[in-house]
Every structure is written in structure tokens, then in C-alpha cells.
Known about the structure:
By secondary structure, the chain is mainly α. The protein has a domain at about 70-135. Helix content is about 55%, strand content about 0%. The chain has helices spanning about 30-40, 55-60, 70-95, 100-110, 120-135. The longest helix has 25 residues, at about 70-95. About 5% of the residues are buried.
Amino acid sequence: MKIDSTGPVRSSPVKKGGRATKSAQPGQFAKHLDESVEGVSGAAAAAPAHSVDGVVAIQEVGDATDDDPQSRARQWGNDTLDQLELVKLDLLAGGIPKGRLMNLARIVADRREQTEDPALESLLDDIELRVRVEIAKYEPRA
């Protein structure tokens, strides 16, 4: 689309289509205004802002499922996956800190005592072996 001119924009005058009819009874409009003003109440004052300490305190309170073994296992699994994700990011960055490896080895050892699932045992064995290999890289060679 080509624009030929960039002059000021002018509006066209509004034409009335017809004449407004006159109210049958004078003063009716003003009467309706007076009635609507009586029903209007003032604006309510704003409530004071509360600190977030209460919300944070509520989040710290545990629920009924905190002592459930399945809930603890799920939490352990999430923590382990978080640690493995950090190890993956460290590998991509060029090296895994020894402290992170030691932490992961501790997490795996703690869970090994509580598991009875052979598939989980096999997975923990794989993780533990890889962690030991990585920790061994930090040991001085003799």
C-alpha cells in the first residue's frame, strides 16, 4: 500500500439523523438522577497490607502425609534427581566438584539401606559405581 500524503487527519462533521423527541413530562430526567445518587455508597477504605511472614509460616507446617514412607521415598527421589541434574550441568560445564560427588554418594548410601526393590537396587548400583569412579579421579595417583 502506498501512502501519497502525510497531511493532518481531519474528521468529517457528524450529521444528525433526526430530531430528538421531547420528554412527555419535564423534569423526569432530573428525578432519575436524584434517585440514583441516594443509592450510591462511598468507597470502602483499603485494608492494611499484612506481612508475608504468616504465609511463609503456613508453608513451613507439614501435612499429615509427611511421615508416610511413600512420601519420604518420593522426596528422596526428587532430591536425588535434583543432585543428578546438578551433576549433569557440572559435566557440561567441564567438571564436577568433589563435594557434589560426595553428597550424591551419601544420598545413595542412605537409601540403599531402606530399599527392597531389585530394579532400584540395580539403579543405585550404577549411580554408586559412577560416583566412585568420578571421586577416584580426584585422588592423587601413586
